[in-house]
Every structure is written in structure tokens, then in C-alpha cells.
Amino acid sequence: VDELTYVSRLKAEHIRLPPRSHVVEAGSNGGILYTLYSGWAFRYKSLPGGRRQVLDFLLPGDLIGLQSPMTGTVRHGVCTMTDAEICALRAQPFRGVFAEQPALAAGLVATLLLDEERADTRLVLLGRQRATQRLAYLLLETHARLLERDLADEDSAEFPLTYDILSDALGLSRAQFARSRVELRQRGLASLENGQLRLLDRQTMQSFSGYEELAPSHRRAIL
Amino acid sequence: VDELTYVSRLKAEHIRLPPRSHVVEAGSNGGILYTLYSGWAFRYKSLPGGRRQVLDFLLPGDLIGLQSPMTGTVRHGVCTMTDAEICALRAQPFRGVFAEQPALAAGLVATLLLDEERADTRLVLLGRQRATQRLAYLLLETHARLLERDLADEDSAEFPLTYDILSDALGLSRAQFARSRVELRQRGLASLENGQLRLLDRQTMQSFSGYEELAPSHRRAIL
DNA sequence: CGGCTTCTTGATCAAGGTCAACCTTTGTGG
DNA sequence: CCACAAAGGTTGACCTTGATCAAGAAGCCG
């Protein structure tokens, strides 16, 4: 059985969701697993007092809730930001991947390692960079991820994120986020308006934020 | 071939290292892979201006440099903090794990997901918690990891970290770290002296820092 | 036309960074 | 055995960043 056929057999359901749908709740353990087919979503953790940290943005092709079948629980929430389509994969047969599709399993590990790399740079961002640099970096990184998926132009992209979500991703207050956004614009680096990201001076922006280009990740569209 | 035998065949070398040995440098791509056999190490990224972010602590049993064989490059450094022993695994045959030991591969994925979970909580820490809470959380988490490996007592442990490393892990300056350490002591939560961690009031400390117990991770000693 | 939610902006204030001095240890060579 | 150096740790004074709070503008429904 080839990989494509194999994966398509795992598919249980195709679901359409409006924005702000909670796909996964922290603490759930249903063992279900999804892939994001179209649209944007984000992973987050909530804290007492309405505080929240956005952990990562999910783009088409990303897996949602892999923890569930593999470790038993998901400890974060996942929520859509736009209209989205997700595929539910049946968890039970999914575990067979390891025995039956070793190349897929290896690809899965490679993907997880790239995610880890992204988490690492996010830690550097929150631990050691100033507000505006954080924003610049996040925009560059996200734009690069969109490019990989042909969801962006060379220097602009649809960017349907509310500023609340962005500030929670950057560990900033909404107010400080707004100021950083203005600063980025004034330095002529990038603009963010009406859901449109525009990179005005990528070169300067990269050195400003300490952005490191990642290897183009050989993304497997499958899974 | 059973798992233990299989893994032992991968083993190429057993190496002893003094403290402050750089096991892996950011950007290297030798394809070598290690396991930490004994001692402590840490993963980090350096920034221009001598700044640094410590990403994670590595404890006995952890893999070092899995990126190398799987994605081609390692983007972080790894450095020992104590005397340490590491096993080098040959990368070429290691890739055979997926075809030949599916259960091991699945375990590997589960481990990576638990690491990701830890990275997530670290992001919450740096993005949304105050200095003293960060410290409290990190101490609780690390103590739990030591307990899993039988390297700690119920409420104390060897803790051979310089304060420099701890502050770089918490995204704090050394001065602020020192103040937080004093505050923890004064609140009667924990003390950290002469390389000894002592948890004085775990209950209060957990609610103070927002610590969530993780499922006891079914660690596989292998790999 | 309200009444949401999102965004913007300003005033104030606290957390934590920076810098610098000083104090311990620990180690080393004379 | 001592003098000195180097590394790690402690503390205080001062200043910057960014949080908090609050008030207002701007869309966007129903």
C-alpha cells in the first residue's frame, strides 16, 4: 500500500468550522487526531485570570492533537481563527503507522523536530528579545511558513490574526503590541493592516530581529 | 532482535566528559547522535552580545542531537554542567529504527511529544509569569524529572547548576534571579544552596507557580 | 440606532534590566 | 603556606521596558 492510500484510509471525517471554534480543549483525551486542511488555527494554554499564552500558529497541513493518541492527553487548546476545514483521523489505526509505514513515521519525527526547533526560537524570543524584535521575528517566521505552502507572495500575505492573539503569542500586552506594530511601520520594516502583512524591507528586518533562515523543511504534504 | 540488543548494537562509543564540555555546537551537521548516560547538560542558543537562552536541561537518559540525523542540522548548542558520560550512536544504522523497531519509533515520538509539552509550559513561563513564579515552576519541574529517574529524594535533590545558567533558562538577569531565589526562600517555599535543592512546601509552591503535574511519562530507559 | 468587539492612545507605575562595587570560594604558582 | 587571581555570588542605585488602567474611536452586526 502506498503512503497516500494508507493515509486516506485513516481519514474518518471531513469537518467545516467557523472562526473561533474550539477544536481541542486542554485536558481532553478522546484519542482523536486531526489535520488542518484549510484555514488558520492556534495552540494555546490558558491561565487563571483570563491570561493566555499562544504557543503556535497552525497552518494548512499541520497535525492537530497528536498528543492524544500517543501520550493519552492533550494539555493545550486549539482554536480556529478563520473558517477552516479539518480531517479527523481515526486514532486506533493511526498507531499502525509505525509498523506499516516506517517512512511516514520517520517523516513524522522530522516534522516534530522542526516544530521543536521553532519552539526553541520562540523561547529565545520571549526570554531574550524586546517587544518589537519579537514581533518582527514572528512575522518573518510565519511568512516563511506561508511561503512554503504557497499561501503568500514573496513580500506580502493574508494575515487574519486579531491583535489579541498576536500579543498573546508574543507575551505582550495588547497596548505594547500596538506600539511595536507602529514602530515596525515607522522603521519601514513591515506593515500589518486589515489582515494584510507587507514586508517592506526583509533584509533589515532579519538583522533587526536576529532571524535565522530555516532549511526549507522538505514538508511532506501527507499527514 | 529485541529492543535492548538492537539499541546496544547502535552504540559506537562511550565518552567521559568534564564539566563545560561542548558536546554539540549550533550549526553542526555531523549526523552523530548521543544519549546522555550520566551527569547534567543543557541545550542553549547564543545571541549576539554574549546573551544566551538556555532551552532545556538534559538529564541521564535524554537524547542529544536527534536533529542531526533526522533533519540534517542542529541549531542549538549542548554543554555539560557536571562530569558526564555520553554514548555515541551511529547515525546511519539509527535510521533503521523506523523500519526495524516500530515500537521504539513510537516511543521516540511519544518522548518528543512530552518534550514539546515541556517546551509549551516553558513558553507560558517566559511569556506570562513573573520572575519568582518562573523559578518556582522550573524547580518543581526539574525535581519531578529527577524523581522519575531516581536521582532525587522526595523533597530534595542535588542541583549542580550555576546561577548564570538558571537565569539564562528563566530569561532573567543574574541579579533578578538572585532576588527571586531569596524571595522563594523567604516565603518558605524552597531553598537552593551549595548545589542542593530543598522543597520546603511543595503544595504552596505548586499553586504559587501554577505547576501542573505531568503524567509520569512511562519513560523508556532505552534510547 | 444601539451594542458588541476590536483597535488606539495616553498617563501612570512596577518589574526587572543594567551597572558597579564588593564579597566569597576555590585554585594556582611562588 | 601565603599571595593573588579568577569565578561565582550578593547587593544597591538607577533607569528602561512594558504592564495596567482608562477613555475614546471605529467597524460591524442585529
What does this structure look like?
Two copies of one chain form a homodimer. Chain A is an alpha+beta fold and 223 residues long. Chain A is built from nine helices and eleven strands. The two termini of chain A are 15 Å apart. The relative contact order of chain A is 0.15. The mean pLDDT of chain A is 91. At the A-B interface, strand 5, helix 2 and helix 5 of A face strand 5, helix 2 and helix 5 of B. The structure holds a DNA duplex (30 and 30 nucleotides).
Brief overview:
Chain A is of the alpha+beta class and 223 residues long.
Strand content of chain A: 15-25%
pLDDT averaged residue by residue of chain A? 91
Which quaternary structure do these chains form? homodimer
Identify the overall geometry of chain A.
globular
**Which class do the helix and strand fractions of chain A yield?**
alpha+beta
- Provide the gyration radius of chain A in Å: 18 Å
Biggest chain pair interface? A-B, 47 and 47 residues
- Helical amount of chain A: 40-55%
Query: Largest sheet of chain A, described in full?
Result: 4 strands, antiparallel
Q: Ranges of chain A with pLDDT <50 over ≥5 residues?
A: none
Count of helical regions of chain A = 9
